[in-house]
Amino acid sequence: PNSDYYFFILLANMDNFLLTAMAYYHFVANCHPLHYSSVMSLQIRILMLGSSWLISNFHSQLHTLLAAWLEFCASNRFPYFFCDPPPLLQLSCSNTQLNQLMILLVRGLIILIPFPGILVSYIHIVSAVLKAPSAWGKQKVFSTCGSYLTVAILFYETIIGAYMNPSSSHLADKDSLASVMYIVVTSMLNPLIY
């Protein structure tokens, strides 16, 4: 494992936290528009960015250091276009139980803690929008939030499918497609929705 492995995990995590921050931004802008400038102050934005970077950096370093201890004595053919952790572990001839446990626990927390925050934000947004009398306002909010929700659902559906199932059910083609979806496709769609 090298810097590609580290940056792959770092950027996937940052995308995860970016989606969460955008959900919070949409929540504040739609449910508390008069308080937006005080709720989304510079200090809050710096705190959100800094904590996202620190957690993502720690997580990337954890997996990179754990992978550095692995021995690879089998074929070094890798059917993926980047170093995705689960398939990399399949190439190792050493014990990977600790690595697999960390993937399940730490990634589970990093993926599944922000996801309910996104859901709760959008439940509040939909509730507030449905109470609004203006059809134009409803359409504007749903069109803005709809594109974001499409990217968020695509990201979380593929990442949960790729990492929250037993390693015995991993298929190279399916996992490679899921990795492309949550790393490449969602990242390419981000500028369109933000």
UniProtKB/TrEMBL annotation:
The keyword tRNA-binding does not apply. It is found in: Membrane. Residues 1-194 form the G-protein coupled receptors family 1 profile domain. One of its GO terms (molecular function) is olfactory receptor activity. Keywords: G-protein coupled receptor, Membrane, Receptor, Transducer, Transmembrane, Transmembrane helix. PANTHER family: OLFACTORY RECEPTOR (PTHR48001). This is Olfactory receptor family 1. The gene is OR1.
